Amino acid sequence: MYCKQRKLIFIFLFFALCIYGQQEFSNPIIKGGYPDPSICKVDDTFYIVNSSFEYFPGLPIHKSKDLINWDLIGYGLHQESQVNSVVNLIDVQSDGGIHAPTIRYNNGTFYIISTNVYFDEKKQKAEMINFIITAKNPEGPWSEPKHILDAPGIDPDLFFDDDGRVWYVGNQQPEDPNFDGEGEIWVQEIDLQKFVLVGERHLLWRGACGGVWAEGPHMYKKDSKYYLLIAEGGTSFNHAVMVALSDKIEGPYISNPRNPILTSRNLSYDNWVNSTGHGDIVRLDDGRYYMVLLGIRNEIKRGSNMGRETFIVPVSWEREPYDWKKIKYLWPVVAPETGRVELQNQLIFDNSNKIISNGFIDDFNSEILNLNWNFRRFPLNNIFQIDSKKGLLNLFCNKNKIKERGRAALMGFKQTETSFEYRAKMFFNPKDEGSEAGVSMFQKDNNYINFTLIKQNDNILVQINAIKDGVLEDSFVSEINNYKGQIEFKVTACKSKYELSYSLNGKEFIFVKSLDYSIIKSNGYTGAHLGVYASGNGQISNDYASFDYVNYLIKTK
């Protein structure tokens, strides 16, 4: 077992938080694959929910008092009954699942509205299921999903008007689209007692640049005007935030002539952050406004393995200065001093400091699985077991492998920085031929690196399989001599490489292979995860691996 002295060192590292920048904080505010942020404020606390796609638990919820230090407090989708019917996270495809949620609070109840995108292989058709969940406490429990019928499109929004009416704001493809990806925004009243749409549907806007992926709407009301904020341009280098306003929620809407109000499309592809967009605005008690949004750090080659993350920028409201205009509209101005997302920013609240964690450590001494762990789809029964008395995570070798739409014994936490050291100590004494266990770095079903032990021909082999876009990019296999049932894996990431090594005694490490980071670069919707893996490789097995700890240590630059 892991010695007490070393445990204390790791625990110290886990809780070793350094306070820096008394006047500044750094973007992003929520690191790792947390895209499509939506924010609400209740009393003195802010809450953010993000897209989670095919991962379970789904709809991660963070809270903060100062908008820069965020704690993961739970998930909107946290039990099997929520994800095995209307919402499907059982056999959902890669990059499918839960898209672009909105979180709102009204009259003692929290609401999350979102879309489950499920591709039905039999029908060869994608189904967009828009649903609402509710809770009295954002930490949960959350309700069963309420399916909103006859609600096309994705990325829905809920707007609570000051006259007591509630509106569903969505997007859809026009009846006669001019091109693939053309979108338009619509609004319709919704009855939240019956969770049904009522009244007439109104088409509002096709965006400011021809409706190119017009999506992610959010509605606000200020000074008796309705403001419609949308994402446009697609969630890549041309991503942007657009805004329009109207005297009535049903329209007509006037597009801001200065759209887009935030984008990185005008900047170099090599700017430190790109693809900025999909924003949501929150008002502070002192009258200031801020926008949370997604972006992609330019860590390596104009991207990162963290994928799309959550950033924050200030927002001011300015009236048009043109003397010749009879009506001068008030518009939101995003990042008014620079017009872009900045790495370093002034503290939002004077009495707060940005706290930086050294990483993530789990020694499995708790009976409850840490909130940071994710599964690809809802896990099969009996995939894992926590033995808190011994401080072990037992991961069982079922038949499934990492493959398209599979439910493997695979669990991980989000990669949050480019440079890190990841260690995991494992006890593994397989009896069945083909049983395999170890660590995994994975982005989706066909993008992963498995660094494992496998039993073949009564021998124990160390094995590496690096799969990029479904194709074997690199591999390694070698017999281990004098294997005594335990191993410590180490993955060191620096710049553009993952360095893989292992130790049989916890002291001397044997270098195995160096792999390019791009194998699991986030070219899709999700960022990379680091975790643990076990499989019987298609065979029924009673074998299991016991993990003593995992240690994810961020390297300072």
Description:
The protein has 557 residues and is mainly β. It folds into 2 domains: 250 residues, 5 Propeller (Tachylectin-2, Chain A), CATH 2.115.10; 196 residues, Jelly Rolls. It is 2% helix and 50% strand. The chain is built from 1 helix and 41 strands. The strands form 9 sheets. An 8-stranded antiparallel sheet has the order 5-28-31-40-33-34-35-36, with no helix packed on it. Strand 16 and strand 17 form a beta hairpin. The longest helix has 12 residues. The radius of gyration is 24 Å and the shape is globular. It starts with a helix and ends with a strand.
SSE inventory with pairings:
Elements: H1 4-15, E1 17-20, E2 24-26, E3 38-42, E4 45-49, E5 55-56, E6 58-64, E7 71-77, E8 97-106, E9 109-120, E10 125-135, E11 146-147, E12 157-160, E13 166-172, E14 184-191, E15 196-205, E16 215-222, E17 225-232, E18 240-246, E19 254-255, E20 262-263, E21 273-283, E22 289-297, E23 308-319, E24 330-334, E25 344-346, E26 354-357, E27 359-362, E28 374-376, E29 384-387, E30 392-396, E31 409-414, E32 420-428, E33 436-444, E34 447-456, E35 459-468, E36 471-479, E37 486-494, E38 497-503, E39 510-516, E40 529-535, E41 544-554
Antiparallel strand pairs: 1-26, 2-25, 3-4, 4-6, 5-28, 6-7, 8-9, 9-10, 10-11, 12-13, 13-14, 14-15, 16-17, 17-18, 18-19, 18-20, 21-22, 22-23, 23-24, 27-41, 28-31, 29-30, 30-41, 31-40, 32-37, 32-41, 33-34, 33-40, 34-35, 35-36, 37-38, 38-39
| Total beta strand runs | 41
CATH architecture of the largest domain: 5 Propeller
What are the segments in which pLDDT stays under 50 over at least 5 consecutive residues?
1-21
**Gyration radius, in Å:** 24 Å
Continuous helix count: 1
Q: pLDDT average, as an integer?
A: 93
CATH superfamily of the largest domain: Glycosyl hydrolase domain, family 43
Shape: globular
